[in-house]
Every structure is written in structure tokens, then in C-alpha cells.
Specification:
Blueprint (H helix, E strand, L loop, with lengths): L23 H5 L18 E4 L6 H8 L2 H4 L6 E4 L3 H10 L8 E5 L2 H6 L12 E6 L5 E6 L12 H12 L5 E4 L5 H12 L9 E4 L5 H6 L5 E5 L2 H7 L3 E6 L10 E6 H6 L1 H18 L5 H8 L13 H4 L3 E2 L5 E2 L18 H13 L9 H8 L2 H11 L9 H4 L2 H5 L46 H29 L9 H7 L1 H5 L12 H32 L1 H14 L8 H8 L2 H26 L3 H9 L4 H39 L4 H10 L3 H29 L7
Helix pairs in contact: 2-11, 11-16, 14-15, 20-29, 22-23, 22-25, 22-27, 22-28, 24-25, 25-27, 27-28, 27-29, 28-29
Length: 717
């Protein structure tokens, strides 16, 4: 499994440790930094996704330092994704469907997506790999309960510990980030080498990278494989330790890739080249030792990974504290972005990943790996971009010559079929609160002298309403402060919340681009989705409720269906809506719609069925047509019931969008909360929850106020 550091693939490749330089001719062809070859880029931007990991750094740097703009792509967006599953879904959608055009991605994923192995209904979505983004830099970590077992490269002690835990009747789990992805393959290789069958001896589960530490904290898994900064954060929080870096399995192994939708590249070949050149230049910058401190500061920003700089800078500079007493300076397993051909998309490496995926049942044994690699791997585009940049010693190996490269490197793929079993994956109507429609309240005319604006009685009434809540709030904050000041408290006290979340409290309007925005913008985005979804639900709900309330046949036919559908949790609708709309935004709006429509339908129907018979008789005498009866009798009579349904519905809408945004990502208060949780920023979550509660209250009171106006006070306020 392990080989000496000096027997790496770098010594076997032509032009090892290639020195990069920008030729004067290339610089002359790029006046002012713009990409000026030929007609230039067909478009000025693209949407690129990323997961909050340090190996996405070249994309951050290309955006932060204007390198995309230098090559004629100033409108490139680098967008945070919630998980690799979300990345896949957004790649399937493409930017035309409000998804993304490309991404920082696990190397096997473009193959899995292109072959339809992980897409909805197994529909292939052609993808290209344009470059490798990095080498090594991943780790396998274990929980602190295994500290005494000294788990490291040799998995056998871990096997003994797992068997003891299972004998005690406890479950054991290993977490990775995406089935068939690099993290899945590293942890499977490690476990299997020590005699642990990852499909039989331990349950393999999928956890998005930013959620690894949080899940380990609550005991969800025993070990996981992921990139930084989450291994370092595990140690910082005292939850576990690093067993090994994946470079100890295979020194300088390939890891993430720059993957693009084939349709986008084929349509925009010049833009694809410009994009690739920008990423390659950013990789060169990232790999310079003198830039590592600045690089750590960039990736730690809220817009990108959103962690303390200390959680990324040490391992970026090769200083590894494993958390179990082992400490290494100038580690040979440091992440590389450009050195040693890190950026070159070797086809032999893709072949290794595909072979391992066949081993574990992610691809069929009869898969034509060579044909698939020729379709997905675009080393030709990399070579063309490298020539334009003036890169020297460009590797020139065809797939046949690379065929035995892995054997010479000392790392073998598992045999297809060995441990090949696939892993386990993972009533009645609402009570109406309103009353029947009443008459107009009598207007009292003022008599005598004008009353004073403020009286002792009014002040007393105001105090009676305001003082009790303030006293209760003060007592609650005091109790919270006392309880959470104790050592080991899981939540921060109010004083610490104010200190840690000071910036987002005092400046909710900042906008640094991407998802790095103040709470005002997140809440505004959420409110826009709620406004559209709730409006559609109100219109449809009132119309359907009227039909059900007015027609006995419709009541008997539709009410059972409504009663079943309304019990489905909001988030259960999200996968179905994503499959139907193939777009995150309409999917979120649909979740709001389907969540809030039921109380509107049910309360409207109750109101219609409770219209006094006298009103119906008068309408018959006056010979009102259907539209007149609806507008002059039905709606006014049922309005208190309708607004009760609307109040319940708007509350459910706000609940649904916060939950949905946690999954679809992007700008929104739900995503803000989820991103803060992934980064262990509990104080920011608490502040956001206060905003959520206040906005929910305001929405409820706003609908109640409108109901009071429309019904002239007969709807419950």
C-alpha cells in the first residue's frame, strides 16, 4: 500500500517538476491582461460551483485577484454548493436552468454523471475534465474514542476496536462525501487493506464535507475522509484526530478536477480556454510558498470556506499536528496545486479511479473505460492552454504509454469483483378561528373638547402590554447568560453572541459578492421567494376552497386527497420538485406553494359552507350570476375564515423556505444558517434565528392587519 517518497510518479514522467514561465510572446498576445487570441471568449462569464474545501483555492484566487477578468471572463461566478449531490444536480440543470456550467469536483464525478450512473433516471449528462486542481491534501480522521488505539496507516488496530464496539451492540459507520468519489475510494482502500469490508463490516454513509465535524460531534460516524479544513477543525474542537493523510496511501495522488458541462465547452471553446488559462495561472500562484499565508486568508473568508485562518494555514504550509501526539513539519504530503504536474489531467489517473469504482460496484465490470476516458478527459484542451501560456515541459503521454504507469508507481487498483457488493445508501379541516361576517362598526363622532393625546390610563395600558414581555425577556437572557458561562456549555452566552456576531448585527447591508452578504440581503431573497410562492398558494387555495365548499361532489372527491397531501412534510416535496422543474428556484417556490396551500383551501371551504342561508336566498331573489355571487356574497362572508387560513399559510411558507434553502443553497436566510452551522459559527445562527422569528411574527401580523381591514374587524387579529 505504501511506497517510499522518492518512488513517486513524478520521477517516471517526462519533464518532472516542470518549471513554469510566461513567455514574452504570450504576454504580448495578452494586452492589458485581456484574452485576445482570435475572436476572444464567446461569453464573458460562467457559473462555477465549489464545495467549502481548500482544494477549491484556485477558483477563489482566480476570482479574488481578477485573473478571470484578465483573460476576458470578468463575469465568472464562483458559487458555494451545499454538497456534492447539489453540485451534481446543478450541473445537470446547467446555468440555463439556474444551475452551474462547471465546478470544483471530485475526479470520478464527471465520469459518473456522463455515464448516467448518478443522475435522475440514469440520463447521461456529458461532462469534460479540463484540468486537475490539486494533488493530495485529504485526510482520514477518527473519533477521540479511538485515541488509545493509535489508528494510523495500518488499519488492523482499528478493525479490532470496531469489532469490540460491534460486540457491545453498537453500530459502526464510516463517512465519505459522495458514492464513488475520491473520498469514498480512499476510505474504502484504507479499510479494505486492513481486512475491513466497507460494505459488510462497517456502514458507509454520505455526509457533505462541511457537515463532517458537526456529525462526528454527535456520534454519527466513527471515521471519515474529507479535505481540509474539516480534519483540522475536528482536532481544534477536541472531537477526534487525524489517522493519516491520503498522501500516505499514494504520495501526490490526484484529487479534485475542474469539470465542465460538455455542451458549454463545445458551444464556447474560446471561453473554455480562457477559463482554463485563468485557473492554471491561479494554480501557479497558489503553489508558491511565499503566497501560502495570503492564500490561507483568502480561503478562510466568509464567501469561500468561512473558518478561522488558523484552521487552514498550518497544513497549507506543511505543518501537520495529527492530534494524537504526532507532529510533522515540512510534510511531504502537503497539498500541491501546480508543482509536479499537479494540474495535468493524466488519463492513467482517471483509469485508476474508474477501476476502483468498478471494484466497488459503481460501474459495471464490462465498462469500456478507455472509450469513456477518451470522451470525458480533455487533456488536449489543457495542452493547448498550456502552450498559449508558455508552459514548458508539457507532459506527452498517450493512454497506452500511461497504461502501466500505475504499476510502476507501486499502487495497484483493486481487482474488479473483489468486495464488489455496492454499499448501502442512504386531519379533518383546520379549525377556523374567525367569526361569521358582521356589520359595520358604528362610527362615533367626537363631542366636546379634544381629549389629550397621552393620558394616565393610556400609559398604564401601554405599560401593561410592554413591561411583562420585557421582564420575561430580561429574565430569560439572564438565565441563559448564567447557564452558558459554565465550562463545557454547548451554546454561547448572550454576551459572547453579541461579541462574535457584532459585524453581521451592526452591518446587515454589506455585499462582498457571491453568498458573502449581510443578513438583509439573505432575508430579502427569502422574502421574494415567499411572496411569489405564497401569492400563488393564496390564489389557488381560495379558488379550490371555494369549489370544495360550494360543491358537495367536489368536497367528496377532493377532500380525501387534500387530507393526505397536506400531511406530507415540506422537505419531502423538494426532491420531486427538483426532478420536475430541473431548477432550484422554482423548486423552492413550489415547496412554499405546496406547504401553505392546504390551510387556505380548508379554511376557505369551511367559510363557504358556513355562509348563512339567508344570504343565499337574497342572492337568488336578486338573481345574482355566479361571478356576482362569488364577489358580493361568498368572499365577504367567508373572509374571516379565509384570512385565518392565510395567516396559517404564511407562517408555513416562512418555515418551508428556511428549510428548503438549507438544501438548494444560494442567497437566503436558510442557506446562511446552514453555512454558519457547517462552519461552527453558533453565534451567527442565533442571530439569524432571531431575525427569522421576528420576520415570521411581522408576516403574521401583516396578514392579520389586512384581514382586519378587509373584514372590518371580524377576522381575528
Amino acid at each position: 500500500m505504501r511506497r517510499s517518497d522518492d518512488s513517486t510518479r513524478r520521477g517516471l514522467l517526462k519533464g518532472a517538476a516542470a518549471a513554469l514561465s510566461l513567455a514574452a510572446a504570450a504576454r504580448a498576445a495578452l494586452p492589458g491582461g485581456a484574452f485576445a487570441q482570435g475572436a476572444g471568449p464567446e461569453v464573458k462569464g460562467a457559473k462555477l460551483g465549489f464545495i467549502a474545501l481548500t482544494d477549491a483555492a484556485p477558483l477563489f484566487v482566480a476570482k479574488e485577484k481578477g485573473i478571470f477578468a484578465k483573460y476576458g471572463m470578468p463575469d465568472v461566478e464562483v458559487l458555494k454548493q451545499a454538497s456534492w449531490g447539489t453540485t451534481r444536480d446543478n450541473l445537470v440543470l446547467g446555468s440555463e436552468g439556474n444551475g452551474i456550467d462547471g465546478a470544483h469536483i471530485l475526479t470520478p464525478m464527471p465520469y459518473l454523471i456522463s455515464a448516467g450512473r448518478v443522475t435522475q433516471n440514469s440520463v447521461p449528462v456529458p461532462m469534460y475534465i479540463l484540468a486537475r486542481l490539486n494533488l493530495a491534501g485529504q485526510c482520514i480522521s477518527v473519533g477521540k474514542e479511538y485515541l488509545g488505539d493509535k489508528v494510523a496507516l495500518d488499519t488492523r488496530p482499528f478493525k479490532v476496536a470496531l469489532e469490540k464496539k460491534k460486540a457491545a451492540g453498537k453500530s459502526v459507520k464510516a463517512a465519505m462525501t459522495f458514492p464513488g468519489g475520491t473520498h469514498d475510494l480512499w476510505i474504502r482502500y484504507w479499510l479494505a487493506a486492513g481486512g475491513i469490508d466497507p460494505d459488510k463490516d462497517i456502514e458507509t454513509i454520505v455526509v457533505p464535507p462541511p457537515q463532517m465535524v458537526a456529525n462526528m460531534k454527535v456520534g454519527t460516524m466513527d471515521c471519515f475522509c474529507v479535505c481540509e479544513p474539516w480534519n483540522e477543525q475536528l482536532i481544534t474542537q477536541g472531537i477526534g484526530y487525524t489517522a493519516l493523510t491520503t498522501g500516505e496511501l499514494w504520495k501526490d495522488h490526484p484529487e479534485k478536477a475542474l469539470g465542465m458541462r460538455a455542451a458549454w465547452v463545445d458551444k464556447n471553446p474560446n471561453a473554455a480556454k480562457a477559463l482554463l488559462m485563468a485557473v492554471m495561472e491561479a494554480q501557479q500562484w497558489c503553489d508558491k510558498p511565499e503566497n501560502r499565508d495570503e492564500l490561507a486568508g483568502i480561503v478562510a473568508k466568509r464567501q469561500w470556506i468561512n473558518v478561522p485562518v488558523g484552521d487552514v494555514v498550518k497544513r497549507m504550509k506543511g505543518e501537520f499536528d495529527y492530534g494524537d501526539g504526532r507532529k510533522v513539519s515540512n510534510s511531504p504530503h502537503i497539498m500541491k496545486y501546480w508543482a509536479d504536474d499537479a494540474s495535468y489531467p493524466y488519463k492513467s489517473h482517471d483509469l485508476w479511479f474508474l477501476t476502483e469504482d468498478i471494484r466497488w460496484g459503481k460501474f459495471d465490470p464490462q465498462t469500456d473505460t478507455k472509450a469513456l476516458i477518451e470522451k470525458v478527459n480533455r487533456e488536449d484542451l489543457w495542452r493547448d492552454a498550456a502552450k498559449t501560456l508558455g508552459v514548458s515541459a508539457i507532459p506527452a503521454l498517450d493512454l497506452a504509454r500511461q497504461g502501466d504507469l500505475l504499476r510502476r508507481q507501486g499502487l495497484r487498483s483493486g481487482k474488479p469483483g473483489r468486495l464488489s457488493r455496492q454499499p448501502r445508501h442512504q386531519e379533518g379541516g383546520v379549525m377556523a378561528l374567525g367569526t361569521t361576517l358582521g356589520g359595520l362598526a358604528a362610527t362615533r363622532k367626537g363631542e366636546g373638547a379634544r381629549r389629550p393625546l397621552v393620558t394616565a390610563a393610556s400609559l398604564k395600558g401601554f405599560a401593561a402590554r410592554v413591561v411583562p414581555p420585557l421582564v420575561v425577556l430580561a429574565l430569560f437572557l439572564l438565565l441563559w447568560e448564567v447557564l452558558c458561562q459554565r465550562p463545557g456549555a454547548g451554546l454561547p452566552p448572550p454576551s459572547r453572541v453579541l461579541a462574535e456576531a457584532h459585524d453581521i448585527i451592526v452591518d446587515p447591508f454589506y455585499d462582498n459578492g457571491g453568498t458573502d452578504k449581510g443578513l438583509f440581503w439573505h432575508i430579502s431573497a427569502s422574502l421574494q421567494r415567499v411572496a411569489l410562492g405564497f401569492t400563488l398558494a393564496a390564489i389557488a387555495g381560495i379558488l379550490l376552497g371555494t369549489l370544495v365548499g360550494q360543491s358537495e361532489w367536489a368536497m367528496r372527491g377532493l377532500d380525501p386527497i387534500f387530507q393526505v397531501l397536506r400531511t406530507i412534510p415540506p422537505l419531502a416535496w423538494l426532491p420531486l420538485s427538483l426532478a420536475a422543474f430541473r431548477d432550484g428556484q422554482p423548486s423552492a417556490i413550489f415547496v412554499i406553494f405546496i406547504t401553505s396551500i392546504w390551510p387556505i383551501i380548508i379554511n376557505t371551504a369551511v367559510g363557504i359552507r358556513n355562509i348563512p342561508q339567508d344570504y343565499r336566498n337574497v342572492a337568488a331573489v336578486l338573481r345574482l350570476n355566479a361571478f356576482e355571487f362569488f364577489g358580493k356574497v361568498m368572499l365577504p362572508s367567508a373572509a374571516p375564515y379565509i384570512f385565518t387560513g392565510l395567516r396559517i399559510g404564511v407562517g408555513l411558507s416562512w418555515l418551508a423556505i428556511v428549510a428548503a434553502e438549507m438544501l438548494i443553497g444560494g442567497v437566503g436566510i436558510g442557506f446562511f444558517i446552514w453555512d454558519a452551522w457547517n462552519s461552527s459559527h453558533i453565534s451567527e445562527i442565533i442571530v439569524a434565528l432571531v431575525y427569522v422569528g421576528v420576520i415570521g411574527f411581522v408576516l403574521d401580523r401583516l396578514v392579520a392587519f389586512l384581514g382586519h381591514l378587509v373584514t372590518r374587524g371580524t377576522a381575528t387579529a
